[in-house]
UniProtKB/TrEMBL annotation:
Membrane-spanning segments: none
Keywords for this protein: Transferase
UniProt organism field: Nocardia fusca
EC number(s) stated in the UniProt entry for this protein: 2.5.1.-
Name under which the protein is recorded: Phytoene/squalene synthase family protein
Length: 320
């Protein structure tokens, strides 16, 4: 199927085709929910989305999965930054992920500053272990998540000026990230990080020591449960802000984004159903449920490809 996607996107250079395949493989291995949702896009859109998420996945793995044989995370991230900047100057060159993302940036005229902001947040993960308040966390989330929504927006297309849809795209990226913070609080503790504002936790008499106690005992203290419920409500509010933006997307792209939003939102449902037992169980949406949600969206996606051609969709107004 990847050959069909590359053909539809008019990517003919053998080296670039290998690069995009590599990005697709990264997403298939690591991003089950979003990879499933991308299957609802037009084939010509998918390679660019895989390139953008493949780059984000690669950088994230450098930070979260140190490889002593490959150098320090800082050295590897600095090297990735140099490769990216070089790749943006000479699109389609460099390591496979850089080659694919550089080609995508040039093709869709993406703002280079979005990638610099993303890498800045990745660097924060090398030294920052906690956030004193919401504004400090928001600065991290802008680069780690909101810019991802802004990067993919030109690929998805809109029925309005992109500047009108941009705040919604950023908000949805933020909602997804806040969901991850709640789902992965135990794993993040194992890496020495807390992505929950310290002052908001303190309002419930929760500190890092208590979080570690919960992790060590695989139990959720009542104070921690109340604090997590408050963070859960914050995430819900960001979904509420973001969802109206789906109607601003090109019709071809709406089923994909709506499916991702539903499935990520159901991770929040699952966290609540578990009574915030995030220290003993990872909240997931089952394979059957993911397939059902995606399957129900497939008819809408196919109809949109045949009929939903209004709006801005580049390059060369996609279907295929």
């Amino acid at each position: 199927m990847i050959s069909t996607e590359l053909d539809a996107a008019a990517i003919t250079d053998p080296r670039l085709r290998r690069a995009y395949r590599h990005c697709r493989d990264l997403n298939a291995r690591h991003g089950r929910t979003f990879f499933l949702a991308t299957r609802l896009l037009a084939p010509a859109q998918r390679p660019a989305i895989h390139a953008l998420y493949g780059f984000a996945r690669w950088a994230d793995d450098i930070v979260d999965l140190p490889d002593p044989g490959a150098g320090t995370p800082r050295a590897r991230l600095d090297d990735l930054t140099r490769q990216l900047l070089s790749g943006l100057d000479t699109p389609g060159r460099g390591e496979p992920v850089v080659a694919a993302v550089g080609h995508t940036v040039a093709r869709y005229h993406l703002d280079n500053g979005l990638f610099r902001a993303f890498l800045d947040s990745m660097r924060m993960d090398l030294t920052v272990t906690g956030y004193p308040d919401r504004p400090a966390l928001d600065r991290y989330v802008y680069g780690s998540a909101e810019v991802i929504g802004l990067q993919v927006l030109p690929v998805l297309g809109t029925v309005c000026p992109q500047s009108e849809a941009a705040p919604y795209a950023a908000a949805l990226g933020k909602a997804f990230q806040l969901t991850n913070f709640l789902r992965d609080v135990a794993e993040d503790l194992d890496r020495g990080r807390v992505y929950l504002p310290a002052d908001e936790l303190a309002a419930f008499r929760v500190d890092r020591d208590l979080l570690h106690w919960c992790r060590d005992h695989r139990r959720t203290d009542t104070r921690v449960r109340a604090a997590l419920a408050a963070q859960h409500a914050v995430a819900r509010r960001w979904y509420a802000r973001a969802l109206p933006g789906i109607d601003l997307l090109h019709p071809i792209s709406r089923p994909c984004v709506a499916t991702a939003a539903v499935l990520y939102g159901e991770i929040l449902d699952r966290i609540e159903d578990l009574d915030f037992a995030v220290f003993s169980e990872r909240a997931t949406v089952g394979r059957a449920r993911r397939a059902h949600v995606a399957g129900s969206a497939l008819a809408r996606a196919l109809w949109a490809r045949r009929n939903g051609r209004s709006g801005t969709l580049t390059p060369a107004t996609i279907p295929a």
